[in-house]
Amino acid sequence: MRFKIGILVFISLLYLFSMPQHFRASANGKDLALIYVTSNRQVDEEVQIIHEMLAAYTDVDVIPIENIQEDTLAVYKRIVLFNGYKMQLPDKALQAFNKFQGPAVAIGDNIKQLAPFAHWHSGKTVALRKIGEHMLERPLEWNAIIPPNNAEVKVMASSFNADFPFVMKERNSNWSYIGKVIQSSPVIYDWPSILGDLLQLSMPEIHPAFIVLTDINMETDVVKLKKVVEQLKRYNVPINLQITPLFEDDGALYYLRNNKALLKYLQQLQQEGVAFILSSSQATMEKSLHTLVLSHIYPTFVQGNSTLFSGAVRQQESHFYITESGAQKMYPYTIAAINDMDTHPLYALQQSIRYIKSAPGSAIGIQYPSYLGAHYVQEIVEQLNKQVQFEWLNFRKTEQFVKTSKVTIAQSANGEQKVQLSFTNIERLKMRFDERPFEMVLWLLVIIVSLFVTVFFMNTLRLRVTLRKRLFEERKHNG
Predict the structure, then answer these.
(1) Per-residue b/e over 115-134, b at no fewer than 16 CB within 10 Å?
(2) pTM
């Protein structure tokens, strides 16, 4: 009996240890700590980019190395140490690193201070021109690190004169090493999968995708816009419209609502549950928003950056994940623009899709200028279906919040919008005057003339009544 129980226990343990060690954070502990070394102890651009990549896999705590105590890392399953600045690492941090048993990755300088890399050698400074299979746009200076012969090399780099190990794993250690997270395209798209592999993380397979119809303003051809929208609907693509309510040309401001046909169509789309994105300069942000809501169009995202909105779309080089910063969630444009002047208008877009699919879970954000018409919609959707696994992201089905002194828009995950406005009648009148001064002057003239006519009529009527009364009294007196 004891023998059978022992066999069962042995088989159970064998099964447990043979399971792939790719897992996300459990509810009881923390999964990953990103520890950074920078000159000013602040999170810089490189730290932010690495954090975005790691956050696509799991929850990440970002910690300056100065805050690491000997027992700080005990609650984490994995760590990444980013060395963006050469310095003597604190003793307590070194003790914590040397005690850590989970998957760990060191990036950049200072690695020879860590026990697993103490026997590695420093090489000369070289100008790298190739990382893995990718040529660099410009040479990158790097202080080469020479690992022992038994290190497992994951990625090689080249200066054309010589090859160098650039991403390595120490065979008898839980630590791995990356020379530098290079931000140039297309190399940058490889880092998320490299980090995921070294840290033994489960990689997301689905890419969130969205298409935004851009360049919608007072001069937009509503017929072309309708054709694009109808084509997107045909392929079940959620409709997201980026609109510019105030359009400036040669110093003059043109208001979108002056294009009555376009305004009517946008109001119809608002009722149909389409998402609107406000495009405006910071100087006219509130005015643009107020203009739209008084036209019964309620944008819940902003193009660029504004504290008025909880959701933003924008294009930032080297950023290709949906991220949160404080109370704002950022949705990146990640795909190259359509060049309708080129012989192959979609070539750059197709190349971008090939790159972006290398980064697990990255966003596929596409800008589609409305003036192009519906010509490219089908081909874009077919390219996506052919190359990547993705799910359409419906901006209208996300929780969003917009707040100014006069407007509050709360959008729930089911698409319902609750709108509160607090404009006075005088404020509404002033905004209408700003938008249509000539029309308002004409109305003012009509009102003045109408009042004058009314006063004249009333005065004439009073005089006639008075005259008739006087004639009646004279006849009575003479009678």
Answers:
(1) ebbeebeeeeebebbbbeeb
(2) 0.83
CA proximity to 312, closest of 280, 271, 269: 280
User: How far is Cα 77 from Cα 26, in angstroms, rounded to an integer?
Assistant: 10
- Rounded to whole angstroms, the Cα distance separating 100 from 296 reads 58
Cα angle: 418, vertex 424, 428; to 5 degrees = 90
328-375 tens-digit pLDDT: 999 999 999 898 888 889 999 999 999 999 999 999 999 999 999 999
Q: Where are the alpha helices (DSSP H) in 63-187?
A: 91-99
d(CA 356, CA 202): 18
How far apart CA 214 and CA 232 sit, in angstroms, is 14
Contacts of 150 (CB under 8 A, 6+ apart): 171, 172
Q: Under DSSP, is residue 14 helix (H, G, I), strand (E, B) or coil?
A: helix
Between 320 and 150, the higher pLDDT residue: 320
Q: Label residue 42 exposed, middle or buried (CB < 10 Å: 0-12, 13-18, 19+).
A: exposed
**16 backbone φψ class: left, alpha, beta (φ>0; ψ -120 to 50):** alpha
User: How many other C-beta atoms can be found within 10 angstroms of the C-beta atom of residue 96?
Assistant: 22
